[in-house]
Write a structure and sequence with these properties.
Blueprint (H helix, E strand, L loop, with lengths): L6 H21 L5 H5 L1 E2 L10 H4 L7 H22 L1 H29 L7 E4 L2 E4 H6 L2 E2 L3 H14 L4 E2 L8 E2 H17 L8 H23 L4 E2 L5 E2 L5 H22 L9 H23 L6 H7 L4
Antiparallel strand pairs: 1-4, 2-3, 5-6, 7-8
Helix pairs in contact: 1-4, 4-5, 4-7, 5-7, 5-9, 7-8, 7-9, 8-9, 10-11, 11-12
Length: 310
């Protein structure tokens, strides 16, 4: 079963599990990897820029690790197979880093609103703590931001796919699955409960994922026609030869329809069909010439053949 997991999803699972084991073993000896590699508040003394990346592979406890890895396995396998390994890796890491920026912005707003910059110490239930030590406690860990980006990617790639969510007794579509999770995180973030969960980081991962997917759709839409991430046809720019070929095919279909209305009986061996086949081959040759050398390279005779619908 483990061999069937796509490579990037598999490696991310391994890295997260090994990092947690290292954190546990070193923690028994008094060293906390979360303090070094977790994402500290930008104004805290222990903040380092590399933490925007490393915090994703740190976890608070076993249950935190389990639920993140379960979601990564459940949805990451599907998305990686659909998008390809390189695109999936870039998307996942960018969502994780982006979630970290959202979390930092939230903490900075809290820092500014409380006016903490004006104080050197903070009183926590009668315990006087230096401000630097207090800010160092604002530490974020976990793969959740990247996971929520993956959930968003699944919902936009397979909006009509039905999945089960505990405790709902019936399956729901992927697009509603994403909406439910986003709503839960939004209401949790707006609530007043202190559950030590970075809800804004989760939403940040989804927002960054949405921006990335919309950008990809925009890029594809300006290159060629493709079936979009949400399942709808997206038209793009076409070459002159492709437009002429489309016009020619449509004209041919219309001609055949009119002949069928007049009780024309098609025989693949008759002379008319042979002439039609020869005419189509000549049109294909002319269209290929347009692609290679442009419309202006056609001779007068070739232009006449191209637009002769009789």
């Amino acid at each position: 079963m483990f061999r069937q997991i796509p490579p990037i999803t598999k490696h991310l699972l391994i890295i997260n599990i090994l990092a947690f084991l290292a954190h546990y073993v070193l923690g028994q000896r008094g060293f906390s990897m979360n303090d070094m590699f977790g994402l500290h508040f930008v104004m805290a003394p222990d903040f380092h820029i590399y933490q925007f990346f490393t915090y994703m592979f740190m976890h608070a406890n076993l249950s935190h690790l389990f639920f993140n890895m379960f979601a990564l396995w459940m949805f990451g396998c599907t998305i990686e197979r659909a998008w390809g390994s390189q695109k999936f890796l870039a998307y996942t890491l960018i969502c994780g880093v982006g979630a970290g920026f959202f979390q930092e912005a939230t903490q900075f707003i809290s820092y500014a609103v409380q006016g903490l910059a004006a104080y050197d110490t903070v009183n926590l239930g009668g315990i006087i703590m230096p401000m630097e030590q207090f800010l160092n406690q604002w530490n974020t860990v976990g793969f959740s931001g990247a996971v929520y980006g993956i959930l968003l990617g699944f919902g936009m790639t397979y909006p009509e796919e039905r999945i089960f969510i505990f405790p709902l007794p019936v399956p729901i579509k992927g697009k509603w699955f994403v909406c439910i999770y986003a709503a839960v995180e939004l209401f949790s973030a707006l609530g007043t409960s202190n559950d030590n969960i970075a809800h804004i980081a989760h939403l940040g991962g989804m927002v960054v994922g949405y921006i990335i997917i919309r950008y990809w759709k925009y890029q594809y839409a300006h290159q060629n026609t493709f079936r979009g991430w949400d399942g709808y046809e997206v038209g793009g720019k076409q070459s002159l030869a492709d437009r002429i070929r489309g016009w020619w095919d449509k004209a041919q279909m219309e001609r055949r329809r009119k002949k069928q209305q007049h009780d024309y009986r098609h025989n693949p061996m008759n002379d008319e069909d042979a002439k039609e086949k020869q005419r189509q081959q000549e049109i294909d040759r002319i269209l290929d010439k347009i692609k290679k050398s442009g419309y202006d390279s056609l001779t007068a005779e070739e232009r006449q053949k191209l637009f002769d619908r009789k």
